[in-house]
Every structure is written in C-alpha cells, then in structure tokens.
Amino acid sequence: MHQLKERMAYIKGLTSGLDVNRNTPEGRVLLEIIDLMDAVIHSVDRLNIHQEDLEEYVSAIDEDLTDLENDFYGEYDDEDIDVYEVYEDEDGEQDDDIEYLEMECPNCQETVFVDCTVFDDDDVVEVLCPECHETILVNDDSPVTTS
C-alpha cells in the first residue's frame, strides 16, 4: 500500500512539473484520471485498515469461542488424566466413602477403575475400557462378550 501512495505522489509531481492544467481537454482528462486513482488508493487503504480490524476481531471471537468450548465441553487430553484424582474430594483430600473396583482390561492391559455403585442398580450396565473402548464388564451376571 505504501508503494502505491509513493507512486501516486510521483505521478502528481510529474503532472505539476509538466504544468498540466484543466484548461485543455487532455489536461482535464489526465487530472481526472489522477484524481480517480488517488480516490481508489485511499479506498483500498481504508479497506485494508478495516480488513485488519476484522481479522483481529475474528481472532478474538475465535479465542473466546475456544475458551467457551473448553469451559462447556471440558478439555480432553489423555496425558492430563490422573486416575487418582477420582479418589479426591473438592478439598483435595481422599474420599474414603467411594469404593472402586480396580481391574485390568483383557484387551489392552490398561488398569481400569470402576465405581462399585454400578453394581447396586438393577439396570444392566456395561463398562468400557477408556483406552481401547472394548466392553470389559457387564453387571448382569452374564459372561462378557467382546467385539
């Protein structure tokens, strides 16, 4: 953009040095074209400024949306999951009231913790391994089938 402004200033300097005036038909046409080019350059400059502002605004909206999605859906990263934080209450102390069944997945050998209250309900509940997503336990007293 800076280069266009410099070239426009150069052309204006040439026309004033050549003593181009509006008294002749050619001079009027040439000066009108120069005025038109100057107006176009200013319009493009304003559009560039507005474009930069919009890009900043969209970037801010994108960051806000990302924060909102993380707050609403929660961030999920396998490396951030600490199995033992399940045992802690809000104060960071261990909660002895919750009992867990610890078992090893037969498919991927990952240690899985299952809340024992799952077995208290009359509903049939399947426990899936969080690592390989295979069924590892069903609380209906029937044998487990894997797919």
UniProtKB/TrEMBL annotation:
Which InterPro entries does the UniProt record give?
CD1247_N
Protein name, please? CD1247 N-terminal domain-containing protein
Q: From what organism does this protein derive? A: Effusibacillus consociatus
Q: What is the lineage of its organism?
A: Bacteria, Bacillati, Bacillota, Bacilli, Bacillales
